[in-house]
Amino acid sequence: MPELEYPSHLRYSADHEWVVAGSEESVYRVGVTAYAQDSLGEVVFVDVPAEGDALTAGEACGEIESTKSVSDLVAPLSGTVVAVNPALEDTPEVVNSSPYEDGWLYEVRASAPDELDQLMDADAYRESLS
């Protein structure tokens, strides 16, 4: 089995989601990790929060469904959703083929950017999986 990648410029949650700074201050893009998509199997549906939804870090904010199971999406940061990935509606499998690029889920304007400090770097995330 090939080793899964965990880019070093991302931050990771214990719930197998990644976060990266977006194009605007306090806006962060969120997706699921290679580990999550590999564990889920073929993704067939993604229910992400809608633009304008308020999120609370650590609380469920959507679901990701695969041929194997349905898993909660857990918000890694508190804030307001400012964008969702339009590709997910017609091609949810992009989460499998490109989890760190085209398969991103949503963007959130963080209301407590210091929550980012609670997330793991790539080495700590990799270690948490072993």
Keywords:
single chain, 130 residues, alpha+beta, OB fold (Dihydrolipoamide Acetyltransferase, E2P), three-stranded antiparallel beta sheet, 4 helices, 9 strands
Would you write up a description of this structure?
It is a single chain. With 130 residues, the protein is α+β, with helices and mostly antiparallel strands. The chain has a single domain, classed as Beta Barrel (OB fold (Dihydrolipoamide Acetyltransferase, E2P)). It has four helices and nine strands. It has helices at 34-40, 87-90, 94-97, 122-129, and strands at residues 11-12, 17-21, 27-32, 43-47, 54-55, 60-66, 70-74, 79-84, 106-110. Strands 1-2-3-9-8-5 form a six-stranded antiparallel β-sheet. The protein has a three-stranded antiparallel β-sheet with strand order 4-6-7. The chain is globular, with a radius of gyration of 13 Å. The model has no long low-confidence stretch (mean pLDDT 95).
